Amino acid sequence: MTDQTAVCRRLVGRTAVITGAGSGIGLATARRLAAEGANVVCADIDETAGKAAAEEVGGTFVQVDVTDAEQVEALYKTAFDTYGSVDVAFNNAGISPPDDDSILTTGLDAWKRVQEVNLTSVYLCCKHALPYMQRQFEQTGRGGSIINTASFVAVMGAATSQISYTASKGGVLAMSRELGVQFAREGIRVNALCPGPVNTPLLKELFAKDPERAARRLVHVPVGRFAEPEEIAAAVAFLASDDSSFVNAAEFLVDGGIAGAYVTPV
Ligand SMILES: NC(=O)c1ccc[n+]([C@@H]2O[C@H](COP(=O)([O-])OP(=O)(O)OC[C@H]3O[C@@H](n4cnc5c(N)ncnc54)[C@H](O)[C@@H]3O)[C@@H](O)[C@H]2O)c1
């Protein structure tokens, strides 16, 4: 795994806005992008966690509910007003609540909430980040990089369904592809990051309580373990940087080989 003290400095002078920066993948990415030299704007609905993240990485905290159009618009304005550019948008905030389950038992309220937080939010974030990148491209010839967090469940079916979550991530994937194509000639790359299962506190707790549940999933992972958030953050740093200058409109799987597997090692 990446030694954070040995990371390269690919993002000096760039400004990165990260939603859901207070926890998990977002927090690991805030640390990584800051280590690579970026000005980091940590956006989260959770004031305590978001503030702590921003303080730790020497960035700026903006409290935002990513389902609120005005708050999202204000988020990118704050980033631009504070640092003078919006170069990277990592649209990552998302939820997977327990009442989103099989289609047969998931109610309309649960369905809609997950669609709002996981999919509508990405629409709003892209809508309000893009104009800054377009303007910058016109003025300087440098556009930007948008990375939207989808999931490996956007490309694979699971019998252990979370129906609205899966549908929302499929939407993120298709929207990212389309935006990547539409804005490619304006110097803006848009990619969908598709992580496999990540070793977050929630997942750890769940699987500690229910080892059978963990084993049922682990059998499908060729690598034989879940990802660490830092491994996902390293992929985001690559997609954010010019090292990925020809990677666009991609479904960028970081899944330990799950989506490529038929029979795994035992
Ligand atoms: N953890 C995994 O195994 C995994 C796998 C694939 C994809 N993902 C996706 O990665 C992203 C991050 O997941 P994570 O595991 O790091 O989650 P997490 O729960 O650790 O962090 C999510 C953050 O988003 C914030 N958030 C939630 N609702 C918000 C809202 N309305 N407005 C602003 N912020 C809000 C939370 O406060 C939290 O800080 C999500 O989109 C998730 O669907 C996670």
UniProtKB/TrEMBL annotation:
NCBIfam families: PRK06057.1 (NF004713), PRK07231.1 (NF005559). It comes from Streptomyces noursei. Keywords: Oxidoreductase. Pfam families: adh_short_C2 (PF13561). Belongs to the short-chain dehydrogenases/reductases (SDR) family. This is 3-oxoacyl-ACP reductase. One of its GO terms (molecular function) is oxidoreductase activity. The lineage of its organism: Bacteria, Bacillati, Actinomycetota, Actinomycetes, Kitasatosporales. The keyword Nuclease does not apply. InterPro entries: NAD(P)-bd_dom_sf, SDR_fam.
